[in-house]
Amino acid sequence: MSDDDALEAANARFYRAFEALDIAQMDRVWAHDEHVKCVHPGWPLLVGWTAVRASWETIFANTAEMRFTLSDVAVVAGGELGWLTCTENILSEVRGRVAVTSVLATNVFARDRDRWRLVHHHASHVLGHTG
Amino acid sequence: MSDDDALEAANARFYRAFEALDIAQMDRVWAHDEHVKCVHPGWPLLVGWTAVRASWETIFANTAEMRFTLSDVAVVAGGELGWLTCTENILSEVRGRVAVTSVLATNVFARDRDRWRLVHHHASHVLGHTG
Q1: pLDDT classification of A128: cutoffs 50, 70, 90
Q2: What is the pTM (predicted TM-score) of this model?
Q3: Tell me, what's the ipTM?
Q4: Do B78 and A76 touch (CB under 8 A)?
Q5: Around B3, how many Cα atoms within 13 Å sit in the side-chain half-sphere?
Q6: Distance from A42 to chain B by nearest Cα, in Å?
Q7: Residues of A near B (CB-CB distance < 8 A)?
Q8: Distance between CA B13 and CA A85 in Å, rounded?
Q9: Neighbouring-strand partners of residue B24
Q10: Nearest-CA neighbor of B7 among B36, B35, B29?
């Protein structure tokens, strides 16, 4: 499998973990160190796996359903790092409210032996396209 | 100079070019290919140097003054790529209106011989902190 294909597969695993609302799957997707970072739409920057993991637990506890259709997936690999942009077309149900939203995401992955691990997720709304 | 120091210097050049509202400086900061990408706060994803460069020309034409103070700068280098997160504390004047804003940025750089060139800029507002 090429690096580009492997990165796209790692990215798909991230969104499947998000859809499953399953912290054990998230644990396998991310690197677990103090350098990992995450920006959920509108949230401040989270730094370190402990803070990032806690944010997923909070989101999963407050989300009934989440379905992603990805578009515009573009991958660039370079040595030990790879980065990817995509549009997250999201159908979600949070506290009984169903919403359709488009979010732009930048995801950075680091090579960990034969796997790519997520080290940074930056997601933000496009103005006029928020749900 | 270490990769981390060189990346931080390349990042500082990007914000100096932005403050100078100088497209010639921007030209020297960015890689010039079809893979470069840019997300200005609330904008859709721009793909390719032609589209990214045009966005800077539009922003510079509509901005009277822009001053950045960066905080929380964190750098990770890995082979041919490097990525950096920072908080842009911005004093700006657009169409006569002065605003103070905090923006989160993810900047990805690619090694180009002895230089790091910007290949991706993703900037987004923190809700409750927009100017």
Answers
A1: low
A2: 0.92
A3: 0.90
A4: no
A5: 15
A6: 5
A7: 35, 37, 39, 41-45, 47, 72, 74, 76, 78-83, 85, 87, 104, 106, 108, 110-111, 119-120, 122, 124-128
A8: 24
A9: none
A10: B29
For β-strands B115-125 and B97-112, DSSP reports them as antiparallel
Average pLDDT over residues B30-41: 96
For A24-61, letters b (16+ CB in 10 Å) and e give ebbeebbbeeeebbbbbbbbebbbebeebbeebeebbe
HSE-up of residue B58 (Cα within 13 Å, Cβ side): 8
Report the alpha-carbon distance of residue A117 to residue A11 in Å, rounded.
9
Partner residue facing A76 (CB), from B35, B82, B126: B35
Query: What's the rounded mean pLDDT across residues A53-72?
Result: 94
Interface test with B, best of A33, A35, A45, A80 (most B CBs within 10 A): A45
